[in-house]
């Protein structure tokens, strides 16, 4: 208290924060000059800056008339740098060192605590600094002088040793091919001093114009150092509570955080994991585990997590294989990466791994040699794919890592069916890329390597076959009686015909051939883990239930119409591929999931105004039957309908036609001469 009384407050000064030059104001620190010479007297010849690096170079004129200037030394330096000849590239055109270059370096990395202040009429105006640069003399002209000296020495030595200077010596050149760069090598190269210097040198200089202290432009810019408004609303940064002000003066120490041991970058604790969003948690878990049942995933996410939200997120980073979730290939191999073994780009790796995943949707066993033969990838990459999701068995191959998750398939049939549609789209892409044969597409029946081996005796097989026959006989009898009643009620003339219809009845005996179709599920001919008879909503005999026929027809017609309006001509194979992708994008439980046969799809194409074009493909073509069926939109309602119809008729006579023939035919049929742009548009 005594000290406060001895040191009374003399004056209170209002402080204002000026924002006009925010992030534009730099402080330049020049070298110490003689007291008799101020920087007002120095003539700035030029200035340039690299904004990203905050690097500045200034050229200042030297007063050669000053009595302290050594003229002979200045002439010697100019002679060493430029030599005897002077041209536009000379550093000192006056043959005298009459200027000096100053290059900047950052004085402080954190300048947020510094500001420029100006005091006027009892007010203190502060402008935060964006950078503090120290300018030091640059001696690059000495390097230039050394280079000139070495060139002169080399020329003298070359002249003494040989008189045939025009002849070039033959030198042996060694050609080397660089290996594919790994991710770790790329990171080391990016962090190297040589790379950083190269990056800094690539940034272009921005030339500036220098204004003196007493210039009118300088006076105008200096006014921006004053706050434009004195209201409190514009200086809220200076209004702080005592605790906030104390926190700003003495920020908390971060030494404790720095002393903690750093975990590896690829290690994340469960406590840290649960602080992330749900989608990121699932992505990290699937990327590390690679294969996981849905129940295990829910247990790792903690109690209270919504299963619906988890299902929605897991479908974005994983695919369903035999009822288990396997991480997608593009998550493990992001774009612009390559294989650490062979340097193959990520796109090729994703295709190869998708092929392995697709094989496991068909069978529990995969042979490594078969995968390598189809994908044409190196053995190390193929082994990585298989180790992600399977286990090697001696003399058998690679078996899928987890058992078939029947509980998930029963609880979530919509998810299973949607994933099945996705796999159909992936299969279509793989067929085109790898030219898969039928032996690759059909799953192998390996009862000995079944996931659930069961021992069934002969007596049990006979009993099961007898029960199957009785069940089928009862269902047929019920269907027949139902059809018979409908025919009687709808058509009175049918009464005379119905009695003539009889079902062949045969006695069920022990000698009845055994129906072992119930046991074909023991092999692993699964499609995405879904048994053919399980949860099936396929139409019976190609007919949908009466209540949803109209809705399905409307949805199917809308899809076909929009597709042909975009592409005009499609093969049946391509149309089916687009339809499967469309199904995969629909929400679970959509009406189109009730089942659409190929016949229904083709009939709808014809009903929407399209026609089948019978293109005479050559008989030796390798195309599939669906690829030979070509459909085209006959009338689109635009000005090119007539031209398009003529073009389609041309292709119905020959599958390959010359351009001039097409142009002549269009001109004859349409009665007008089409230019090249119009013909290109019709062909496109």
From TrEMBL:
Protein name: RPC5 polymerase
One Gene Ontology cellular component annotation held by this UniProt entry: RNA polymerase III complex
GO BP, sorted A to Z: tRNA transcription by RNA polymerase III
Record domain DNA-directed RNA polymerase III subunit RPC5 C-terminal: where: 444-684
Domain of life of the native organism: Eukaryota
Listed Basic and acidic residues bias regions: 146-155
UniProt-annotated stretches for the region Disordered: 146-169
């Amino acid at each position: 208290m005594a000290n406060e009384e001895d040191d009374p407050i003399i004056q209170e000064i209002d402080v204002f924060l000026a924002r006009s030059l925010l992030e534009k104001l730099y402080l330049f620190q020049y070298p110490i000059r003689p007291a008799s010479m101020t920087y007002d007297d120095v003539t700035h010849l030029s200035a340039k800056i690299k904004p990203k690096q905050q690097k500045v170079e200034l050229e200042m004129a030297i007063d050669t008339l000053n009595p302290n200037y050594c003229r002979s030394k200045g002439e010697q330096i100019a002679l060493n740098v430029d030599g005897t000849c002077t041209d536009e590239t000379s550093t000192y055109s006056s043959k005298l060192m009459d200027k000096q270059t100053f290059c900047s370096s950052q004085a402080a990395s954190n300048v947020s605590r510094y500001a420029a202040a100006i005091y006027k009429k009892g007010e203190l105006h502060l402008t935060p600094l964006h950078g503090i640069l120290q300018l030091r003399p640059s001696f690059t002209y000495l390097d230039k002088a050394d280079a000139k000296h070495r060139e002169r020495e080399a020329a003298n030595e070359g002249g003494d040793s040989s008189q045939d200077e025009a002849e070039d010596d033959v030198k042996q050149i060694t050609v080397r091919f660089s290996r594919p760069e790994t991710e770790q090598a790329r990171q080391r190269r990016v962090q190297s001093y040589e790379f950083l210097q190269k990056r800094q040198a690539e940034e272009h200089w921005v030339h500036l114009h220098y204004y003196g202290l007493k210039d009118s432009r300088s006076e105008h810019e200096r006014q921006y150092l004053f706050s434009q408004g004195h209201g409190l609303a514009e200086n809220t940064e200076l209004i702080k509570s005592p605790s906030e002000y104390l926190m700003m003066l003495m920020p908390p120490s971060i030494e404790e955080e720095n002393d903690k041991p750093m975990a590896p970058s690829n290690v994340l604790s469960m406590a840290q994991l649960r602080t992330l969003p749900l989608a990121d948690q699932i992505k990290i878990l699937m990327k590390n585990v690679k294969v996981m049942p849905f129940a295990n995933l829910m247990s790792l996410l903690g109690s209270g997590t919504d299963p619906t939200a988890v299902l929605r997120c897991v479908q974005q980073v994983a695919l369903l294989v035999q009822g288990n979730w396997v991480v997608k290939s593009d998550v493990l191999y992001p774009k612009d990466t390559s294989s650490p073994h062979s340097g193959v780009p990520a796109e090729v790796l994703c295709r190869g791994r998708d092929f392995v995943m697709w094989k496991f949707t068909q069978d529990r066993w995969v042979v490594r040699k078969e995968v390598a033969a189809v994908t044409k990838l190196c053995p190390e990459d193929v082994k990585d794919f298989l180790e992600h999701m399977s286990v090697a068995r001696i003399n058998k191959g690679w078996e899928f890592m987890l058992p078939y998750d029947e509980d998930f398939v029963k609880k979530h049939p919509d998810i299973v069916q949607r994933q099945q549609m996705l796999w159909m789209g992936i299969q279509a892409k793989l067929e085109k890329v790898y030219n898969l044969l039928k032996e690759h597409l059909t799953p192998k029946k390996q009862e000995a390597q079944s996931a659930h081996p069961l021992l069934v005796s002969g007596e049990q097989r006979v009993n099961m076959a007898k029960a199957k026959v009785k069940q089928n006989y009862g269902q047929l009898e019920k269907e027949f009686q139902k059809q018979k009643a409908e025919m009687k009620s709808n058509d009175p003339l049918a009464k005379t015909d119905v009695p003539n219809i009889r079902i062949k009845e045969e006695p069920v005996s022990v000698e009845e051939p055994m129906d072992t179709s119930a046991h074909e599920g023991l092999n692993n001919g699964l499609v995405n883990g879904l048994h053919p008879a399980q949860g099936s909503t396929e139409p019976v005999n190609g007919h949908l239930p009466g209540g949803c026929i109209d809705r399905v027809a409307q949805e199917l017609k809308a899809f076909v119409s929009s597709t042909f309006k975009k592409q005009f001509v499609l093969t049946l194979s391509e149309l089916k591929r687009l339809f499967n992708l469309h199904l995969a994008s629909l929400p679970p439980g959509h009406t189109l999931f009730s089942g659409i046969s190929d016949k229904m799809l083709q009939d709808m194409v014809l009903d929407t105004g399209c026609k089948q074009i019978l293109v005479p493909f050559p008989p030796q073509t390798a195309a599939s039957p669906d690829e030979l069926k070509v459909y085209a939109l006959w009338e689109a309602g635009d000005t090119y309908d007539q031209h398009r119809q003529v073009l389609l008729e041309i292709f119905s006579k020959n599958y390959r036609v010359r351009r001039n023939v097409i142009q002549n035919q269009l001109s004859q049929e349409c009665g007008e001469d089409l230019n090249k742009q119009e013909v290109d548009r019709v062909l496109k």
